[in-house]
Every structure is written in C-alpha cells, then in structure tokens.
Design brief:
Helix content is about 40%, strand content about 25%. The chain is α+β, with helices and mostly antiparallel strands. InterPro entries: ASCH_domain (IPR007374), PUA-like_sf (IPR015947).
C-alpha cells in the first residue's frame, strides 16, 4: 500500500515533536526530588509520567493554545497526572488532527466562578460560552499548559487511528510510550515506501 507523502511527512513531524516532548518530560522527571517522586507514585499503578493526556479541543481553542493566547484549558473533570506530563492536542471537527502538544504545569480546581475569576483571561473564552460549558456543575478545572509545540503539519485522524489512538470526546490517557508506537508506524511506512 502506498501511503501519501503528506501523511509520511506528518508522521515524521509528530514523531520528532513527541520524541522531544517525551525527552523533556523525562529530564524533568529525573530532576524531581525523592519526596515528590514518592508522593506522585501513589497516583496509580502506572506511576508518574507513564501516560500522557490526549485532549480534544475545538479548533478555535486549539489555535489559541498554539499561538500562546490560551495558556489554560478548561475541563469539567480532572485528569490525574503529575506536573510535567505530556498533553497531546487534538483539534476536533472540522480539523480532525493532532496539531501540537504541551506540558501540563498544574491543574487547579475550584468552583466555576473561582476558576473564571482566576483564569478567565488565560482561557481565551468569552464569559457566555464559559457559563454554558460549566452549566450544571459546581466544579471546574484549569489545566495549565506550557512549552507548547505546534506540529509542523497537522497529523490527520486516519494516521492517528492507524497508530492505535482513538481521539476522545473530551480527554483520555494514552501511554507515554506513544512515541515508540509512532516510530514503529514510521518504520513500517518507510519500508513500504
């Protein structure tokens, strides 16, 4: 099967970016103190930074994250990942592609009013849309993002599915070794090409 050159180049860009992001997270992980490592090890059987966060974001918000005007992603449920974890940004319909990645620098919890007061400007959302999103809940979560990297070329949904990742409605965990899966996928593409 011949894979279009655009898809091959997109996979190469994702591979390089995820490899760099995962390496950066690994360096941060190695520099953490022993007490922090012990505290985060209690978060689950997988331990800290052994998984990444794959989030679906509407295209206008994905673009705002990539251009730096949005440094906080809002959610109604809290992901359980330590600071420094990799966050893969999937731009939903009509884009339907991975457009970049970032590092999670913190998750703040509060009421929707508290989160709006503290992070409204950083969330790049107007107040009416914010209120509609948090309608019916008394909890809000602000995912603080840093070290944002744009993919050289968006990685299309078909390529992501070929790697074995199904984009979620909101967010999901994926193994941090997704870089390895992407490298294997690229190797298969190169051997076919």
């Amino acid at each position: 099967m011949r894979v279009p050159r655009v898809a091959q180049e997109a996979v190469k860009a994702l591979e390089a970016g995820l490899r760099a992001a995962t390496a950066s997270a690994g360096r941060e992980r190695r520099t953490k103190s022993a007490s922090t490592a012990t505290a985060t090890a209690d978060q689950g059987a997988e331990g800290p930074n052994e998984r990444a966060l794959f989030i679906s974001v509407k295209p206008q918000y994905a673009n705002a994250i990539l251009d730096g005007t949005k440094t906080v992603e809002l959610r109604r449920t809290r992901p359980n990942l330590p600071d420094g974890s990799l966050v893969i940004l999937y731009s939903s319909t009509p884009t339907r592609a991975v457009v970049g990645w970032a590092h999670l620098t913190g998750v703040r919890e509060g009421t929707p009013i508290e989160i709006w007061d503290e992070y409204g400007a950083a969330a790049a959302i107007d107040e009416l849309d914010y209120d509609a999103y948090f309608d019916g809940t008394d909890q809000a979560f602000a995912l603080q993002l840093d070290s944002v990297v744009s993919a050289i070329q968006p990685i299309p949904l078909a390529v992501i599915r070929d790697i074995g990742i199904q984009p979620p409605q909101s967010w999901r965990y994926v193994p941090a070794d997704v870089t390895t899966q992407i490298q294997d996928f690229c190797t298969r593409l190169r051997s076919r090409g």
